[in-house]
Amino acid sequence: MKTDLSSQITLERIPAKYYRPSNAFEQTALTRFEKVDTQIYESAQKASIYIAGKIAEEIQRKQAAGENFVLALPGGHSPQSIYQELVRLHKDENLSFKNVIVFSIYEYYPLAKGSSNNLQILKELLLNHVDINTNNIYAPDGTIAKDSIFGHCKEYERQIEKAGGIDYLLLGLGRGGNIGVNIPGSNINSQTRLILLDNQSKKEVANTFGTPDSIPVSAITMGISTMLKAKKITLIAWGEDKSKSVKDVVEGEVSDSIPASWLQNHPNIRLYTDLNAAYDLTRISKPWLVTSCEWTNQLIRRAIVWLCFKTDKPILKLTNKDYQDNGLGELLALYGSAYNVNIKVFNDLQHTITGWPGGKPDADDSNRPERAKPYPKKVVIFSPHPDDDVISMGGTFQRLVNQKHDVHVAYQTSGNIAVGDEEVIRYASLINNVIQKYNPSDKALKEQMDKVLNFLMKEKNIGDEDNKDVLFMKGRIRREEATTACRFIGIPDSHITFLDLPFYETGKVQKSPITQADVNIVKAYLQKVQPHEVFVAGDLADPHGTHKVCLDAILAAIDELKSEGATWLKECRFWMYRGAWAEWEIDYIEMAVPISPEELRSKRLSILKHQSQMESAPFLGNDERLFWQRSEDRNHATAELYHKLGLASYEAIEAFVEYKPL
Q1: SS3 293
Q2: What is the rounded distance in angstroms from the CA atom of residue 459 to the CA atom of residue 453?
Q3: CA 536 to CA 399: how far, in whole Å?
Q4: Would you call 658 exposed, middle or buried from its count of C-beta atoms within 10 A (0-12, 13-18, 19+)?
Q5: Carries keyword Glycoprotein (predicted)?
Q6: Separation CA 4–CA 147 (nearest Å)
């Protein structure tokens, strides 16, 4: 079972020469804007294996010299694959940790006894599985009295010094440029201290705690000064949502607003990223500024869109001088004139626009994103959560139904943990009132509802996990909301399927790894429907996020069906949509579906059927806008972008990228 196929999606094939130069001269040219040694890998997994191997070499080198190896480690998602490989090296290749001293980089504060904490995560992922001496494990204490924190932090610094200083510091790069819990505003002189978590930090640690309410307000973290004393620093960043931070740290100026930028001052720092996290680096996103390019259609489109915004001109008004003044003279040499390139890119973008996402019947489809035949098509929309379908492609969804395609929807997870307790209290109370009115003798159901109400209103404390009855009700609330939205759009109940993939059903924010059971469920569904067109959530931001795991389950199922000779796959196309926050970059868009004002309003109404996901939803993130507002703003912005480039003006646009099975 291939469970990480989504990590191989880079949307275009980035030539290896941009991130694996063959000689020092090429390396110097490509990285001339970079201030931190940066190594780019095709996937986080490959980079993690390499990093773990290097850590193992350092441990063994110290062992051979009869010395201890002082290792500072973070929690979080980013290092998980590294820890897994270190555990494998210990078990399969006898890597010993007996000479290793570990310092945890941070701990949350205040911690209640028995609550989740960073040291616990380190133990579960690594320390409990190797032969480290437990007396060699140090971590800030998240349970001490507040008036003891200052002295405790000073003592932690002394413990590091007593151990001989940090030999190897492993850091994950946060979305806000934070390292450890050094949030924006942290200065170069900061040492181990108590720091208040900002909203971005709280969002990043949400997976550690059961609910947003249970996230501690503060953390005790090593400071920037403490980190810069380490002999060697490895910084890691995976996923496209880290791309801006990577660019800021590697190519930006040193600033306390980007705490990780202070690492530019360290003599032995190396950053490891995957291609998605490295996307905003100049050599990946704008290689024409640092080297001669292999000009693919997508790279040409990206370069011209960039040039339009740099010159504040639409495509067809760009001149030879614009190209020459901005490092794009190569394109003039290849195509003869700005006019020729302009027309090529303009037509390329024009051909992405279609009002027929399922293909227009009896039409010339040579320049359309989707085929005319067969018509009508059997279409499957996969939705990771019960509302992603309408939030991300509600207009296209409605258009497919209106154009008489045979549309099916498959909800991959229950989404139960994203329902607030007050929603269950409301529905349980309603059920009790209905029982009282119509069937007072149904004491078993009333007793069950009373148990649910008692648990939520009296027994449950902040941070407690829900019991199975509450999770069932939360899942059913989301199921009914999704069904209502589908009915509103015009989907019969027989075309609505809830897959309830097992990886999700932990009752906690932290999910289980994907297994063959998840893949088999998706395989069976696809084999049953045998669609001509499939829409999937293509978010690649979080390597461990629900959307990505759901995508991996689909891609693994497709891969296995392909290997098993499923003939219907030859006539099936797969389109990826994005989540609520961001749209595809325009250089990737292969199908752009215009949405009229009336259709946009209908889309909003379908999103509003998901009432549990309004203001009271537990995981709305830092964005104060509601999901329908985020979605509309995104769709408006895509339409405006097309218009600024000189194409037709639409109210809104939903965009898609085609996935071609490997």
Answers
A1: coil
A2: 9
A3: 17
A4: middle
A5: no
A6: 47
